[in-house]
Every structure is written in structure tokens, then in C-alpha cells.
Amino acid sequence: MDFFTTVGVGAIVALLGLLLLGMHLAVTFLLVAFCGVTILLNPDAALSLIGETMYSAIATPTYTVLPLFVLMGAFAAASGFAEQAYRSIHRAAARVPGSLAIATSFGSAAFATICGSSLATASVFGRIAYPEMRRYGYDRSFALGSIACSGTFASMIPPSGMFILFAIFTETSVGRLFMAGIVPGVLTATVYAVSMYLRARANPKLAPISDEEHEVTPRERVRALGGLWQIALLGTVVIGGMYAGFFTATEAGAVGALGTLLFGLANGPLRRFSNFRGALRDSAQITATLFFIIVGALFFSRFLGLSRIPYNLTVFLESWEVHSHVILGLILVTWFLLGMLIVQTAVFALTLPILFPIVVNLGYDPIWFCVIAMKMNEIAGVSPPVGLNAFSLAGTAGKDVRVDHVYRGVLPFILCDLGVLLLLFLFPALVTFLPDLMLD
């Protein structure tokens, strides 16, 4: 191992160590990369490279898609769309075993079409759905597991914030990634709902049916679905506009943010200045944090390029006489293990610049691969010992909820996720057929 590669390996070890100690992700990337470039070259070169990275990472129109969709999600969360989706689907599913959990699954999927953050989705539904489930006598682990795992849909269903980061790190099309996530996201929501129904029917103590649900008439069920028209309209305009070629991803983000703002004003919540200001503040904080992470990750990836680790790894894997599925499997296992220890944004920011070109060279479709990686992100998001969705839910659901309560409830849903992952491997067209039909 030469000097450059040795420094690169040492930097990766230092990076993981600092992340495990709790240092901020962006600061860790910048600090380790700056020290590494200084060792390999000199301090002046490190300062010059970080300055050039800060400019080139942000000074491109493509990056405006991120703050626009973040703003759309902030307006949606402040406008009460999650509560609207949850209550409408719950009423439509009344008397069905596990109806509140099913409402959480499909309500999360509906809310995800206008909010691209899985953490926000899990925390919002934790405040809405968990007290309601407990009031109806639902088993605590069953309730928490359904909320935590349903919250991961926002990572897959467009407009997904993580897909935007994927597009930035891999230079793939944001619009094509959005289209690729629709079928896997809806499929996961459906598999979850079927699992909830079967478990609640087999064991009614998990999810008792209340007297209130027995009073809901068929006409009231249909009328309840009408409460989703605003979400359906926004999702159709934004996603349908991109699919039909009417909007670029950036234009769709602007249209979505404006539409969500107008509905929030019309419905009332955003007329209160405190709610409006809070949505803008949250949007600005999230955007600034993500841009900071992007700059740090790109700077670190340039340092890794200097260390020759990506080149050496590519040469090794290309000379390794095993099936490409073995290499892909090792990459996915590595991601899962890293995702159990550090946040997913850090995992992908660290690994995608290195591993994505290797996977594409092995012949895998880049859009399909990004969706598979996102599925692993969903599973890691609720897996111990990190599982950010689990921690987010535990922090918002109530004082009686601990993170271990959440972990006990997620295992059946992780098994569902693994089943969906297998389907995506066996039938790649589930991912690729919508992007391939897109009008450019």
C-alpha cells in the first residue's frame, strides 16, 4: 500500500471514529478532508481546493431543486396535510382490522407526495396516529412499528429529499429518480397494509375495532376519500408535470411549493404568521444543513480521489473473478452495517462517489441501483442501534415511549421490506419502466 492510499485509509477510519463520537457530519467531512489534503499536498492546496469545491458544489441551477422541495415539505407539514390524510383514510377504512395502522401506512404514502422527509413524516404521524391508536386500545409495539416504518416512505415516494441528494452525488436525473420511486413506494405501502390487516385479523388484541368505526356508513367512507383532493391535486401536478415533460424538476419544485402555500393559506394554518415563519425557518435550516453536508461530502470525495482509493478499489473489483451479484451484495451489506452505526446521509455521502461508478461499470442500471440503495436506506432507518426514524418517533410520540419499544415493533415490517427488495431484484422493470416512458 503506497503513501497516498495509506493516508486515505487512515482518513476513512478517522471519519468513522469522529462520526461515532457524535461530531457533526459536515464538519467531520471538512476537517478530515482538509487534514488529508494538507498531508498529501500542502495547506495552500487544501484551502484552494475547499474554496473551489464550495463554489462548484452550489453554483449550479440543478441545486435549486433541493430548497424548493424542502420548502414544499415545510409548508405541507405546517398546513396540516398529514392530519388530513390520516383522518380521511382512517374513516374510509373503518371496521377493517388494523384500520388505524392501515391509515398510517397509506396516509404516510399520501403525505410523502408533498413532503420529501422521512424524519418529518415519522415525527408528524407519531404525534397524530400514536395517541389515537392507544386510545383505541392498539398494542404499543404494533402501533409504534407501523408508524416508524410507514414514515420511511418519504425516502422513496417523490419528491424525495434523499433522491435529490442521490442525484447530486451520482449526477443522475432527479426527475427519473422520482419516477423510479413511485412503484416501489406504493408497493411497500400496500405490502405493509396487507401485513397489518392479516396480523390484526389473526390477533384482534393487536388492533381492536371500536364502536365508532361500526357507525361509519358506506357513503361516509366515499365522502372521506374526498378529503384527499388537495394532496392528490398537488401530487398529480408536480409528479405528472415532470412525467409528461411539462416541468423540469426545479420547475416542479417551484410549482409544488407555491401550490402548497396557497392551499395552506386557503385552509387557514399558514394565515397565522407564527406557522408561516416557522415553515420558512425550518426550510432555511434544513437547506443550509444539507448544502453544508454536500460541500463537505464533495470535498471529502475529491480528497479520496487524490488518495487513489477509488481507482485502486475499481482495479481490484474488476480483476476479482466473481459474479457481479456478489460484489453488489457486498456493497449492500456494507451499507446496511454502516447504516446501523451512522446516519444514512453520511453513509451515502461517503460511499456513493466511490461505489456508484463501480456498480455502473458492472452493468447495473444506475436508476435501479439508486432505488435499491434507497430501499436499504429505509430498512436501516428503523434498524438498531441508530435507526433515525425510530429515535425521531420515540422523541415525539410521548413520554412513555422509549426507542426500544419502537425497535420491538419494526421487525415484521423489516421482513416486508426484505420481500419488496427481493421483488425489485427479480423484476427490475418495477423500477425502470416509468423512467423509461418519461417524456424528456
Q: Would you write up a description of this structure?
A:
The protein has two domains: 1-59 and 292-307, no CATH class; 63-271 and 310-437, no CATH class. The N and C termini lie far apart (46 Å). The protein is mostly helical. The chain contains 22 helices and no strands. 78% of the residues lie in helices and 0% in strands. The model has no long low-confidence stretch (mean pLDDT 83). Helix 17 (324-339) runs antiparallel to helix 18.
In which range does the helix fraction lie? over 70%
Q: Could you give the order of the helices and strands?
A: HHHHHHHHHHHHHHHHHHHHHH
Shape, please? globular
Mean pLDDT: 83
Oligomer state of the chains in this structure: single chain
Q: How many structural domains in the coordinates?
A: 2
Low-pLDDT ranges: none
Which band does the percent of strand residues land in?
under 5%
What class would the helix/strand composition place it in? Answer: mainly alpha
Query: Termini distance?
Result: 46 Å
Question: What's the gyration radius in Å?
Answer: 22 Å
Q: What is the number of helices? A: 22
Number of distinct beta strands = 0
For the largest beta-sheet, the strand count, sense and barrel status come to: none
Based on the model shown, name its key terms.
440 residues, mainly alpha, 2 domains, 22 helices, 0% strand, globular
Quick take:
By secondary structure, the chain is mainly α.
Topology, element by element:
Blueprint: H1 3-20, H2 25-40, H3 43-58, H4 65-78, H5 81-92, H6 99-112, H7 118-135, H8 140-150, H9 161-170, H10 174-202, H11 211-214, H12 218-225, H13 229-244, H14 249-267, H15 273-307, H16 309-319, H17 324-339, H18 344-361, H19 366-380, H20 388-396, H21 403-426, H22 429-437
